[in-house]
Amino acid sequence: MPEYKAPLRDIKFVMNELLDSEQHYANLEGAEDATPDMVDAIVQEGAKFCEQVLSPLNQVGDREGCTLSEEGVKTPTGFKEAYQQYVEGGWPSMTADPNYGGQGLPHSIGLVISEMVGTSNWSWGMYPGLSHGAINTIEAHGTEEQKQTYLTRLISGEWTGTMCLTEPHCGSDLGTLRSKAEPNDDGSYSITGTKIFISAGEHDMAGNIVHIVLARLPGAPEGTKGISLFIVPKNLPNEDGSAGERNAVSCGSLEHKMGIHGNATCVMNFDGAKGWLIGPENKGLNCMFTFMNTARIGTAIQGLGASELGLQGSLAYAKERLAMRSLSGPKNPDGPADPIIVHPDVRRMLLTQKSVAEGARALIYLAGQQVDIVHSGKTEEERKHADALLGFLTPIAKAFLTEIGYESANLGMQVFGGHGFISEWGMEQNVRDARIGMIYEGTTGIQALDLLGRKILMSQGEALKVFTKQVHLFCKENAEDEQLKEFIEPLAAINKEWGDLTMKIGMTAMKNREEVGAAAVDYLMYSGYAVFAYLWARMAKVAQQKMEEGTSEEMFYNAKIQTARFYFKRMLPRTRGHAEAMLAGADSLLDMPEDAFII
Amino acid sequence: MADYQAPLRDMRFVLNEVFDAPSLWASLPKVAENVDPDTADAILEEAGKITTGVLAPLNREADEQGCKWNDGEVTTPEGFREAYETITEGGWNGLGGNPEFGGMGMPKTLVAQFEEMMQGANMSFGLAPMLTAGACLALDAHGSQELKEKYLPNMYSGVWSGAMDLTEPHAGTDLGIIRTKAQPNDDGSFDVTGTKIFITWGEHDMAENIIHLVLAKLPDAPKGPKGISLFLVPKFLVNDDGSLGERNSLACGSIEKKMGIKASATCVMNFDGAKGWLVGEENKGLAAMFTMMNYERLGVGIQGLGAAEASLQSAREYANERIQSRSPNGAQQPEKAADPIIVHPDVRRMLMTMKGFVEGGRAFSTYVAQWLDIAKYAEDDEQRKHAEGMVALLTPVAKAFLTDRGLDTTIIGQQVFGGHGFIREWGQEQLVRDCRITQIYEGTNGIQAMDLMGRKVVGSQGKLYELFAEDMAAFIEANSGDQALAPYLEPLAASLERLSDVSEQVIKQAGDNPAAIGAAAVDYLDLFGYTALAYMWAKIAKAAAPKAEGDTSGFYTGKLKAARFYFDRLLPRTVALAEGIRSGGDAMMAPTAEEI
């Protein structure tokens, strides 16, 4: 497994040079603590923890996995201790509400820490990561009492949380879920049902586990409008708030999975377990949607992490591994062969990973700033704009980054040749771990429907314009810049085509609703490459400026420009295939009789 | 997980209706001696039975168990020994082997179908017969009569298995720098010393003896690839009467922990003055390996195809059973809580993509196999030479494109299962893990792309490419009057033109800058592959069209619809690939290593 090194230089580049975080934080309500020095210190400390504590446990987690016995779920060696350190370091409370023990720092800083945690050890990071969902739910919809009891302990990290949504027969389609909640006389409910795929549903790292469970009340309407949300703790809290008697909820089994072995994926059985309603009756799904964007950005980070870790491993290997000579003559004449980084195709693989990892970082941090503004923007207008932009970027970030992050992880493995397939090098683990990113928290297909159907077409294209307008302005501002021409021209063309394609699909979708589903994934991938084009053009501009101003880091900035160039020349053309495919229409998908698939 | 079913209906369609293989076989006297349509059909039927009945049921559990190493001995998962015995008794190891030494002499067009079934049913297991067949090919082509008589019959029968020992810890792609040594003995044998890694089925408990073909250097051999020789090194020495003698001094030092194909033993092999015999000429070892390479590489491509087929079978069954959400056009199964997910357009996109790659891929592997048969068995020199050119050109495409699309297909198959796709018991994730190695071994797909573009297309100054382009153009020309095929022929002609333009351009680019080949190679191979599959789908459409009218089975109409999907939704990828290639190699070569 490659030893993880936090890419601090690039993190700072994106935060400070590309996205001007200093100004951004100064514009937020109540973010006075997020001074440049403070932010820098937090990132440095986080990097140390991830490099020294989490990264060494990554392979251990994969090898040992979790085990279930009478005593419950045992996590891999070292996981529990690492969590203790994490809690002692105050990391769980960093971005949470100060009224309940949080430090109130902007969410975008939390995302930077999440990136480093997730890249160094995704399986471990999911334990505190799942708590975020529970924290967000209770923060947004809980009563004061619920907040005092649960939120404070989730924020301190004393307890962790889970999200219990999926059931054996329903995942994407939660409208058909069957778990029941019977009201008790004391205002509580008895929850009965089986939930599957519950990440961190049971473990030995924290004093209590707070499950947020979707279930139906008696007489609730059918479908998605009859679902309510409940808090169901593993141990019932005592009067003083401490964890008391065991609730009737238990982990029935652990899944055997392709990857993320260090994280416990549980079947959770609720057998008349005591729970409390959170939010209004039958509005459970709406309540969940209030922070869906934030949660999905959290998952999108998995794509970033997979490409970053794959790049770190394969880059080091490509510089060391000797095989064949460069086509333009030996580069390492004293050795028996040249390092494989001299070979064009190896470079193609490395540069693809680099353009994905660094583009993904820019996208995640940009989305992170919108989360900040949604929460703490000073004006209603700012908040609304950020919300629209975040809504647009979220499905792209989640699906596009996990898709190309997975591709990137596979390239990282490919650079290693046969060794990539061998467990001890860690590259194949990176691929196995990354695979789930395209599935959970809404599959790529579901994200694509969200983007094209719910967001763009339902808003008559307005949701797209929020972004394309920004791109348009950027292109206009830089239209005269000769140096940037190679980026601005194709960017402007893509930006225009993007709108045209959306119009065309909108027109056909009015005639046949199937067209949305038929075009959605190609549309989403196209959009992802278009967003990346914008981000890479902006990064190239920043780098260009620094070079003109004179810098001691010429290599760093020159690399940015080179990578941008690679992106525009070799990655952006992929939009050609997606554009053509999405316009091909639904007929060739739908004409096929179901029986004909069987033969 | 659906139980694997041998796709016999489609194999028969490809063999008989798309390619008319029986006519080809009848035209090649050496093939006609051994096979007629009835024999071929009986072989397919039996292969279907044995792969679905014996190999497929072992696949899932064997992945969990893996192989065990203990003090040099390797124990295979439960049931493998018995299955190997069954395969051996059926004579399957020698299906394509030389009849002079006990092989069955079946043409590759037929053997390819058996291979696909075996790899689709159980890739870990399938590697054992595959490696044996490869070793036999090399031995048959280059071994002395004495070696052949001594080893081939027991290898064809499967009583002994074969292994190929090439890679060393520091040398995989670049075999020129291997270090294993061969010292000549007075009796004409050699003492072989060195360490080989990644030796598939290098040691196991299924066969009585294991015959290693080992690359090593003779004393004072020239440096680099021209100083490598090939040796036969048996695990047990073989007495003059053919019985097994003493144990040779080679041993399995350990087995690798891997991502997939866990039930096949990937061995570190230590040779410690092990006794071996030269195969072929001194210092011509790599060349000797290359004669079997074409077969092996197609065989690896077929592994990708087999995994893809298995994944498709499961995915379409799941998509018909799993109910989730309603169709955008209203409930299709109102009596149920939701509709089966096959009603959703995006699920269909995934299934149709899989079908496009699998059935198009099957036609392509058979197409390449057909050229292998002509190259090996045609009596006319010209015809043979032409076929050899086609084989040389198409082999890297078959290896890389079928495995790349094979992995894509298994990943999509996993995606159709949603969260269940990530869970081992459903089997989809195993197919992804198993398939992943096929992009790496037997020459990584990057190496295949370099072979295609550098050695074959640019190396022949486009002459080899022309063979393929002419074949396609002739098909388009011959069918230009057929209205039913017009929707396919038009985009096919356009994509041929695109590929020809790009080919011409890369030949030109390569003249100015050797790095241009490496920079464009992988995209070029993809472009080639998508175009070749379009050609296959046009051939499939041609075979299906006359039978589509009044077809109540859905088979032929389904073929036409799948062809249309391929042209509408998958072929457009060539536009993107061509654009990437045209942008040249500067974007890759300009950054320094430090900048990357």
Automatic annotation (TrEMBL), chain A:
InterPro entries: Acyl-CoA_dh-like_C_dom, Acyl-CoA_Oxase/DH_mid-dom, Acyl-CoA_Oxase/DH_mid-dom_sf, AcylCo_DH-like_C, AcylCo_DH/oxidase_C, AcylCoA_DH/ox_N, AcylCoA_DH/ox_N_sf, AcylCoA_DH/oxidase_NM_dom_sf. GO terms for molecular function: flavin adenine dinucleotide binding; oxidoreductase activity, acting on the CH-CH group of donors. Its cofactor is FAD. Its EC number is 1.3.99.41. It comes from the Bacteria. Residues 163-271 form the Acyl-CoA oxidase/dehydrogenase middle domain. Residues 42-158 form the Acyl-CoA dehydrogenase/oxidase N-terminal domain. It catalyses: 3-(methylsulfanyl)propanoyl-CoA + oxidized [electron-transfer flavoprotein] + H(+) = 3-(methylsulfanyl)acryloyl-CoA + reduced [electron-transfer flavoprotein]. Keywords: FAD, Flavoprotein, Membrane, Oxidoreductase, Transmembrane, Transmembrane helix. Residues 282-450 form the Acyl-CoA dehydrogenase/oxidase C-terminal domain. Residues 467-593 form the Acetyl-CoA dehydrogenase-like C-terminal domain. The chain crosses the membrane at residues 516-537. Signal peptide: none annotated. Involved in the assimilation of dimethylsulphoniopropionate (DMSP), an important compound in the fixation of carbon in marine phytoplankton, by mediating the conversion of 3-(methylthio)propanoyl-CoA (MMPA-CoA) to 3-(methylthio)acryloyl-CoA (MTA-CoA). Belongs to the acyl-CoA dehydrogenase family. This is 3-methylmercaptopropionyl-CoA dehydrogenase. It comes from Marinobacter oulmenensis. The lineage of its organism: Bacteria, Pseudomonadati, Pseudomonadota, Gammaproteobacteria, Pseudomonadales.
UniProtKB/TrEMBL annotation, chain B:
It holds the Pfam family Acyl-CoA_dh_N. SUPFAM superfamilies: Acyl-CoA dehydrogenase C-terminal domain-like (SSF47203), Acyl-CoA dehydrogenase NM domain-like (SSF56645). It catalyses: 3-(methylsulfanyl)propanoyl-CoA + oxidized [electron-transfer flavoprotein] + H(+) = 3-(methylsulfanyl)acryloyl-CoA + reduced [electron-transfer flavoprotein]. The keyword Transcription regulation does not apply. Its cofactor is FAD. It comes from the Bacteria. Keywords: FAD, Flavoprotein, Oxidoreductase. Residues 468-590 form the Acetyl-CoA dehydrogenase-like C-terminal domain. One of its GO terms (molecular function) is oxidoreductase activity, acting on the CH-CH group of donors. Residues 163-272 form the Acyl-CoA oxidase/dehydrogenase middle domain. Residues 283-452 form the Acyl-CoA dehydrogenase/oxidase C-terminal domain. Belongs to the acyl-CoA dehydrogenase family. This is 3-methylmercaptopropionyl-CoA dehydrogenase. It comes from Marinobacter oulmenensis. The lineage of its organism: Bacteria, Pseudomonadati, Pseudomonadota, Gammaproteobacteria, Pseudomonadales.
